[in-house]
UniProtKB/TrEMBL annotation:
Molecular function (Gene Ontology), one example: undecaprenyldiphospho-muramoylpentapeptide beta-N-acetylglucosaminyltransferase activity
One Pfam family cited in the UniProt record for this chain: Glyco_tran_28_C
Species assigned in the record: Blattabacterium sp. (Eupolyphaga sinensis)
CDD domains named among the record's database cross-references: GT28_MurG
Gene3D superfamilies xref list: Glycogen Phosphorylase B
Record-annotated Glycosyltransferase family 28 N-terminal domain positions: 7-147
Name by which UniProt lists this protein: UDP-N-acetylglucosamine--N-acetylmuramyl-pentapeptide pyrophosphoryl-undecaprenol N-acetylglucosamine transferase
Keywords of the record: Cell cycle, Cell division, Cell membrane, Cell shape, Cell wall biogenesis/degradation, Glycosyltransferase, Membrane, Peptidoglycan synthesis, Transferase
Example GO BP: carbohydrate metabolic process
Amino acid sequence: MKISPRIIIGSGGTGGHIYPGIAIADELKNKIPEINILFIGSKKHMEMQEIPKFGYQIESICISGGKKNFFSLSGVILFMELIYSCFLANKIIQKFSPNLVIGTGGYVSFPTLYAAEKNRIPILIQEQNSFPGLTNRIFSRYAKKICIAYEESKEFFPQKKTIITGNPVRSGILQLPSREEACLHLGLKIEKPIILSMGGSQGSNSINNAWGKGLKKLIHLDIQLIWQLGKGSLQRIRKNRISHHKNFLLMEFIDHIPICYAAADIIVSRAGALTISEICLIGKPYILIPFPWSSDDHQNKNAKILEEKEAALIIKNEEIDKKLVDSTIQLLNNSSMKKKMSKNILQLGKPKATNDIVNEILQII
């Protein structure tokens, strides 16, 4: 009797680490329907609710991550969490007995990959950013294969086992509905311009505050806004009566991102690697606002690559209040700039990334 392959994916913390793992899992299921896939995530973060929505099991470890001074109380707590999480990940791996462990970066991946290496389980690393995270840099020496999204990150990994694939994205991104269908679904007017603003899975107070100050201007120009605020911000923004205007669609988190992508004329977001990879496939004019406190400043480095290729505009975090609303409106009204940006960003897309990564996985297992 044929034994079904067993895969563990260490994936969590933010959507930028979670959704690449889900995309890989979905493609593995398409190719091997009987495959057994288990996710490992942090019990304190969104993956515990998000991953089961896609039909996958997830086991939790207790690491919280974040930048902490190891000589502070929070640093000591993080160190203790790390030790305990390595113990938990080891128990999970020994019980599940996977053929391969996949790390998509972030602090959840560290205990997962550590336990995999200690149990001599093959490892595959998927790195989303142009500047690799610490976990992936550490464990690259043990990995069978390293799949990267940017040429710029190749120098940080062993050359012989590193391959440029691009970032895995959800299948719905490759098959967007028409703009007409999307606007009908969202209750927006197709004849009016639409901005899609995303502050990341955690939201962004600075982006939200800037839009809040510019709502009257958007109403005056009859511009529609799909506004993803992040957890905990919706109630605060709703206290402003103007935010209830019919031109504005507010939500904490976007469950059906392909619909919002399809409706939008312009997209504004942080410079997370996953979002960038998705926009490169759909080819919409793009304004990036790098999160200045991202680990190793990776968001700024991601954004610079697009800016250098004239595929996106960058607004610095400290300039959001002054520039966000006016710069977005100016781009909406600049047809030649929008056309140029769309053409350039499409050239950066890698639509076969998920398939290519899964083919590498199949060669290992």
